[in-house]
Amino acid sequence: MSRRSATSLWYTVSSHADRNTVIAAYRGSLTVQRPRIDNFTIDVLSGEPWPAEVETAVAALRQRLEQRRDRRLLRLFALGADTVELDLEVDEDFALAVAIAPFTIGGTGISNGAIIWDGNDTGTSVAFDLTEDEHTQLMRYIAVHRGDHQSLIPLVT
Q1: Sheet of 106-111, strands arranged across
Q2: For labeling, which of 1, 73, 108, 142 is most exposed (least CB within 10 Å)?
């Protein structure tokens, strides 16, 4: 994640951010980075019980995992047994990603072979490689969703 381009910077969420801010940052960053993410994987695992608001999404993703296992399509070394690939261009996949992203133990968004979205540890570790426009949009998204946009801070490496 230390790779920086001239047109983007890495951001994270302050360790003092409240729950609304963290959730808004995870979901908002996926929303603003959606056009750039060409490969997205997420673990259907959480370090805490899944919130009731995402149980439907979790059930849908677990069903996909079962279907994949049933068809013996599990690529053991490419994807973990609880990892799902989602196509963020597909609205249903995008909605599933946005729903569970703040609560998963791991998710990764890749653009042109480089990680630009990295959310881990059930909402406690996150980093986004944002363009200036994405940063502005994300600040707005966080504020609109009752979060503290000042908790979005540059990632110091």
Answers
A1: 83-86, 39-43, 106-111, 114-120, 125-131, 8-13, 152-154
A2: 73
Alpha helices in the chain (DSSP H): 19-33, 55-70, 91-100, 132-144
Q: What phi, psi does 124 have (nearest 5°)?
A: -110, -5
Residues ≥6 apart with Cβ < 8 Å to 100? 42, 44, 46, 50, 54, 57, 58, 61
Alpha carbon 76 to its chain centroid, in Å, reads: 22
Please provide residue 111's backbone torsions phi and psi, each rounded to the nearest 5 degrees. -130, 125
pTM over 0.85: yes
The residue among 135, 126, 96 whose CA lies nearest residue 108 is: 126
Please give the backbone phi and psi of residue 39, each rounded to the nearest 5 degrees, phi first: -145, 125
83-90: average pLDDT: 96
The ranges assigned to domains in the chain are: 8-154
List the beta bridge partners of residue 26. Answer: none
Residue given tokens 């990680």 in the structure block = 115
Strand bridging mode 83-86 / 114-120: unpaired
Mean pLDDT, the chain, whole residue set: 90
Nearest to 43 by CA among 12, 73, 81: 81
